[in-house]
Amino acid sequence: MKPTEMLKKMMNQQSLLGEIFRYLVIGGIAFIADYGTLLTLNKVFDVNYLWAASLAFCFGILVNYLGSIYFVFHVRSMQNVHIERILFLVIGLVGLGLNDGMLFLLTGQFLIPVEYSKLLTQIVVLGWNFAARKLLLFSKGNKHVA
Questions:
Q1: Among residues of the chain, what percentage have pLDDT more than 70?
Q2: Which residues contact 128 (CB under 8 A, 6 or more apart)?
């Protein structure tokens, strides 16, 4: 398969591969927002790493939500946008728990610098966020009237 054909397939609105590709792009942008905010708050303003991580994560969730609904997923399971937002938030809060729990363990207990801990944590959180959002919010076979 030629690279141009592969790129077209990855950008296909209906393909899972296309959604994963687009999610990685948006996830990368959200990660830059999250990571940059974390480091700025923690290193420049001396905010505790867990507080900084929580605030930065929330900013990243906002970037991710907007990117997900406008760029990544073209099929929405929820008819009610308010329920969709609540579920997106709940999924994000679970992600926040994973994020802060892993940062506490890696940085607080194992003394790994926060900038490295966050990189490891992000891999787990990215997997959780994509899988949960895809299954609950943006899946063809999962239409909810709510």
A1: 88
A2: 91, 94, 95, 98
